[in-house]
Specification:
The complex is a heterodimer of chains A (328) and B (290). Chain A is mostly helical and 328 residues long. Chain A has 15 helices and 2 strands. A two-stranded antiparallel ribbon of chain A has the order 1-2. In chain A, helix 2 packs parallel to helix 7, helix 2 crosses helix 13 and helix 3 runs parallel beside helix 5. Chain B has 290 residues and is mostly helical. Chain B has one domain. Helix content of chain B is 75%, strand content 3%. Chain B has a two-stranded antiparallel ribbon with strand order 1-2. In chain B, a hairpin with a 2-residue loop joins strand 1 and strand 2. The longest helix of chain B has 32 residues. The chains are: A mainly alpha (328), B mainly alpha (290).
Chain lengths: 328, 290
């Protein structure tokens, strides 16, 4: 817990500076007039950044590894498409509702919280498969394997067309920033303190009257909600859904690699990791190996765990600040 | 109709015996190191592909691939162990992610080498049907079932009687106490991983001779092995065997009575039911798992 152990005022100021710096960085592609192709890449990378952040929140605060975030992503995507198309709900309202649907689905996973550590990770993996099969089989609702096509895209608000590449990009930057801020707020709160204590010793924390299962459940819910939001947003940007895409294992695998690469115990790590990993995968790996390019990501993940389990940001921190907050 | 159901029960039992081998490998490594090897299904699949290579390139029997598969899979299993053993911080979490990464590497490696085409044995001898009254089985299935039974007996004997088997059980139940008794935990864990690799090799070749393989199958096998261990609860070999048969039969019945698209879902539903209603598994009486 190196990054979260001190939360004094100067750090707050530093974080504010960091947020500002990130926003300036985020504005760069727009200012420099990036091509639509490049903006498209960034949009996909930011979707991944959102999921990675949600994954890291569960991993860092909740102490749980999830191998099934595709479930939340897919449920968010389908829920938003269906809510906006069938019920006529405005898209910008449908997206948070879809997030709620994803959180609702995570309720079904709560019994799995009784399983500790590795068993929980595997249970989530099983859940992700269940949701994919359900989406394929429930043809009356989802259109089955043929997919969903006719649902509204992002709207125009205050004369700003969100469905353009620029509009989607700005919306995504804001949403990722919002999620990051929510994450920071939780980490600073009493809940964050309690969660850190649980990570140290769950039994001891229970003894002093902290309902650890409840807190972990909330983290799962929140992580699912955030992932659902990005699934929904992605659905409206892409304009086409089928179960193999929406529930693809990619949505479970990529956030893990991105968060581990960047450093999942930091907040900036997963976001930066997602953008770097996505670009690497799309631009470098895919051109080297057409089918099976994920092998490079797998190797990267294995090497990171063995060499720098705290991610690239963790490496920097260690180089800069000695080894002050050495981890247990 | 009854004939169809009987046939489904029979086929389910046969494939279930292979699931049992896969699950026992997973459980063995977990018992020794408290680490779930998420690449276990891929190790099984690797052995299956070796059988495919031997059969398609040399025209030999797939069983001739056993020495090669044992060598390769056990070597890989040992390598995996050495990597896991290097992890110092947050072992539980990081080793899970590491084995997951190895699974990705293996799946995509197999995809690169063999494309995503489905493969199965072409040996007419193995595909020969044998009839048992009104139900039928391929010769390959019957051999796989018999081999599974033999292997499970050997494993049971090994864990019960041999020095290393006892060491594995000792380390599983109390690592520190085992160490005080002069057992080297690291060497014992390595032995457990090697044994898991050997089980995976046989399971893979059995799988190839009785079923269809494809790079994506490995991941599914890991999930199935996991479902079996949850069903079985705190493990004994007969418990795992029965749970694996139950999974195999459930899947086969679903295919016969509903559709093959729902096959995987059936196993999952079974898993959820047990998770909700009997959190200690079907055969486990002890309190907390994991």
């Amino acid at each position: 817990m190196a990054a979260s152990s001190s939360s004094s005022r100067p750090q707050m100021g530093r974080n504010a500076g960091l947020v500002l710096g990130v926003l300036v960085l985020a504005a760069l592609p727009l200012v420099l007039g990036a091509s639509n192709y490049l903006l498209g890449l960034f949009i996909s990378a930011l979707i991944l950044a959102g999921i990675s952040l949600a994954w890291a929140l569960l991993g860092n605060l909740g102490g749980m590894v999830s191998f099934g975030h595709a479930a939340f992503f897919g449920v968010g995507a389908y829920a938003s498409a269906l809510i906006s198309a069938r019920l006529g709900v405005p898209v910008l309202l449908a997206i948070p509702l879809a997030g709620l649907c994803a959180a609702l689905c995570s309720l079904a996973m709560l019994p799995a919280l009784r399983l500790s550590g590795p068993y929980f990770a595997l249970a989530i993996l099983a859940y992700a498969q269940i949701f994919r099969i359900l989406a394929t089989e429930a043809t009356w609702l989802t259109g089955g394997a043929a997919g969903l096509q006719r649902y509204p895209g992002l709207p125009t608000i205050f004369g700003f067309d969100l469905s353009t590449r620029t509009g989607s990009y700005v919306l995504l930057v804001l949403l990722v920033a919002l999620c990051a801020l929510a994450y920071v707020a939780i980490r600073r709160s009493h809940v964050g303190t309690a969660l850190r204590a649980i990570a140290e010793s769950e039994d001891a924390t229970r003894v002093v009257g902290v309902n650890s299962v409840m807190l972990k459940a909330w983290m799962l819910l929140l992580s699912a909600f955030m992932t659902g939001l990005f699934g929904a947003l992605n659905a409206h940007i892409i304009g086409f859904l089928d179960p193999d895409y929406a529930f693809s294992g990619v949505w479970s695998v990529m956030p893990i690699i991105a968060a581990i690469f960047g450093g999942y115990r930091t907040i900036l790590g997963p976001v930066a990791g997602a953008i770097l990993i996505y670009m690497f995968d799309q631009v470098v790996a895919k051109s080297l190996i057409a089918v099976g390019h994920q092998i490079l990501l797998g190797i990267l993940l294995a090497v990171m765990i063995l060499v720098a389990p705290n991610g690239v940001l963790g490496l920097f921190k260690r180089a800069k600040g000695g080894n002050r907050h050495a981890e247990a | 109709m009854t004939d169809l159901i009987l046939q489904a029960l029979f086929s389910g039992v046969l494939i279930g015996s292979v699931y049992a081998l896969v699950a026992l490998g997973l459980a063995l490594a977990f018992g020794a190191m408290r680490i779930i090897n998420l690449a276990h299904g891929e190790l099984v699949l690797l052995a299956a592909y070796m059988a495919y290579v031997v059969e398609s390139r040399t025209g030999l029997d797939p069983y001739m691939a056993i020495p090669l598969a044992l060598l390769a899979v056990c070597a890989l299993s040992a390598l995996l162990f050495l990597m896991i053993d290097r992890i110092r911080e947050h072992r539980e979490l990081n080793s899970l992610i590491l084995t997951f990464a190895v699974g990705i590497i293996l799946t995509n490696g197999l995809l690169l080498l063999f494309a995503s085409d489905m493969r199965s044995t072409t040996s007419p001898m193995l595909q020969d049907a044998i009839s048992f009254g009104n139900v039928y089985a391929m010769k390959g299935e019957v051999i796989a079932f018999a081999v599974s039974l033999v292997l499970m007996t050997i494993l049971w004997w090994w864990l019960k009687k041999s020095w290393y088997g006892r060491a594995v059980r000792a380390v599983s139940s109390n690592r520190d106490a085992a160490m005080l008794m002069g057992i080297s935990p690291v060497r014992t864990e390595l032995v457990a991983f090697l044994a898991a690799g050997a089980l995976a090799s046989f399971a893979g070749i059995a799988l190839y001779t009785m079923s269809v393989i494809q790079p994506a199958v490995g991941h599914g096998l890991t999930v199935k092995a996991f479902i079996v261990t949850v069903l079985a609860g705190v493990g004994s070999i007969p418990g795992v065997f029965l749970a694996a048969l139950l999974l195999g039969v459930t899947e086969a019945l679903t295919v016969t009575l509903a559709s093959s698209a729902l096959q995987e879902l059936a196993g999952m539903v079974l898993f959820l039911l047990v998770l909700f209603l009997l959190p200690n598994g079907l055969f486990g009486a002890r309190a907390r798992r994991g």
